[in-house]
Automatic annotation (TrEMBL):
Composition skew (Polar residues), residue ranges: 17-29
Residue segments, region Disordered: 16-46
Species for this entry: Dendroctonus ponderosae (Mountain pine beetle)
GO biological process terms, semicolon-separated: negative regulation of endocytic recycling; small GTPase-mediated signal transduction
GO molecular function terms noted in the UniProt entry: GTPase activator activity
Entry GO CC: cytoplasm
CDD domains: SEC14
Designated name of the protein: Rho-GAP domain-containing protein
Length: 489
């Protein structure tokens, strides 16, 4: 194996003059990054110390073993000729060695040119990228955050894809979701010398995604990471802010991932399933569909609207009414980013349990009922807009402007079951009042459609996907913008 050397001398010098975590602390909110990345504009340098303590973990921990790496007296890091070969992705070692010859320090610290989001880039051009299904959107996770998925195995050979256009496409796709809390899942398996982007592109990509993209990313899950992927994260560490670094999660098995997001929602490619099976044995066994969890008479989550009506003798589910009544208070209604932020997981879980017992709910802040309302809609046995209407909703974009209002009105007024109609009218009426205060809460029709669309309708046969979310969101936005005509409010 070729010996790998990376000059860290300049980084170690910079560390001597960098502010440390024990230095002065400014008044920064929860959504601010206390140690911003080098891609932002600041008057000081971030902490650039190279901490090799994490390199002393086992290959199954957050970094590769220090037995494979040592720092020489001249400030050069050496990867020894050792079993590290089994952890290194194909041909990446040579590329890092080449990067050393081309001044890798300069690549990290001074590279500022990256593909801009091209204003002249047409959506037709993106079809050349979207056809590979490299990136997808999979609805919400258990905490009500949108889930974005990237599959490395679907990257085509380098000669067949314009990586600059791919970066633009990624930004274009994420723009609708970065204004709210979201999670990113990256399946690393399948990245080889034939389809991998260059290291320079990785630096450019990180810089291209500015703070607006990073601050609402609550978790980045790296699935089936190789030792080399972890090693690269150490090399890129000076480029990554401290807060962003805490969002990284290494997931070594699909069973582990299933604890975060149910894997049946992710449409995991067959080759990844087989790879996980080789690494970890059989896949996590899905719950037996014939064994239904015990349902109590007061239950509201995970049941049908008819079940709730029969046991509570009301059309509007109590949990929906309590959430909306709280959110309609002026202080709550005017909360910036309402429905975009996630809430404390344990508190939302406790509120769900109380609702299932038929108890009154007490909220501590507006984000709790906002998340609980979305969670209720998402966990209905059948979506509020029903499975039957899914195909028609998916045709919304094919309707002419003259047909849209008539077709949507017929769909909602005539084809939707009466109780579903009354609940939908109640929720849309509330959301219209949210839109009236969009100057303060920043939730207009488009933003609300992104949040609520996938929670109002989904397919009985297929999991949520980026291709489906587009028409669903457009339908929901139209519903919000024309609620007066449709519901005659």
């Amino acid at each position: 194996m070729k010996c790998l050397q990376i000059n860290l001398f300049s980084k170690m010098d910079l560390a001597k003059t960098s502010p440390t975590k024990s230095g002065p602390v400014s008044n920064i909110g929860d959504n601010e990054e206390p140690y911003p990345s080098l891609s932002d504009y600041h008057d000081y340098e971030p902490n650039l110390e190279f901490d090799d303590s994490e390199l002393q973990q086992t290959p199954n921990s957050s970094s590769i073993s220090a037995d494979f790496i040592h720092i020489e007296a001249n400030g050069v890091m050496v990867m020894n000729n050792s079993p590290v070969a089994e952890f290194i992705d194909e041909n990446y070692e040579e590329e890092l060695a080449d990067a050393r010859d081309e001044n890798f320090d300069s690549l990290i610290f001074t590279s500022s040119s990256y593909p801009e989001v091209g204003e002249t880039t047409s959506t037709e051009q993106y079809s050349e990228i979207s056809k590979y299904n490299i990136v997808d959107v999979k609805g919400d996770d258990a905490e009500g955050r949108k889930v974005i998925v990237l599959y490395a195995c679907r990257l085509p050979p380098v000669r067949e894809i314009d990586h600059g256009l791919f970066l633009n496409y990624l930004k274009y796709t994420l723009e609708s979701y970065v204004k709210q809390d979201y999670s990113l899942i990256y399946f690393h398996y399948g990245l080889t010398s034939k389809n991998k982007p260059s290291l320079g592109w990785l630096v450019q990509a990180y810089k291209a995604f500015d703070r607006n993209y990073k601050k609402n990313l609550k978790a980045l899950y790296l699935i089936h990471p190789t030792g080399f992927l972890k090693f690269v994260s150490q090399i890129f560490r000076p480029l990554i802010s401290a807060k962003f670094g805490k969002k990284l999660n290494y997931i070594h098995s699909l069973k582990e991932l299933n604890d975060v997001v149910p894997i049946e929602k992710l449409d995991i490619p067959y080759e990844i399933l087989e790879h996980d099976k080789k690494l970890n044995g059989n896949l996590p066994v899905a719950p037996d569909a014939t064994v239904k969890p015990e349902v109590i008479p007061t239950q509201q989550f995970g049941v049908t609207l008819q079940f709730i009506k029969e046991h509570y003798n009301v059309t509007i589910p109590p949990v929906v009414k309590q959430c909306i009544e709280y959110l309609e208070q002026p202080d709550a209604l005017e909360t910036e980013g309402i429905f975009r932020r996630s809430a404390n997981v344990s508190k939302v879980r406790a509120l769900k349990e109380r609702a299932n017992l038929g108890e009154s709910l007490v909220f501590e802040d507006p984000h709790e009922p906002a998340v609980l309302l979305k969670k209720f809609l998402r966990e209905l046995q059948e979506p509020l807009l029903t499975y039957e209407l899914y195909d028609e909703i998916m045709q919304f974009q094919s309707w002419s402007k003259d047909e849209q209002l008539r077709n949507v009105s017929i769909l909602v007024m005539e084809k939707l079951p009466e109780d579903n109609y009354k609940i939908l009218k109640y929720i849309i009426g509330f959301l219209s009042r949210v839109m009236e205060r969009s100057d303060l809460n920043k939730m207009n029709a488009q933003n609300l459609a992104v949040v609520f669309g996938p929670n109002l309708v989904w397919s009985e046969l297929f999991s949520m996907s980026l291709a489906a979310i587009g028409p669903i969101n457009m339908f929901t936005q139209f519903l919000l913008q024309h609620h007066n005509e449709i519901f005659m409010i």
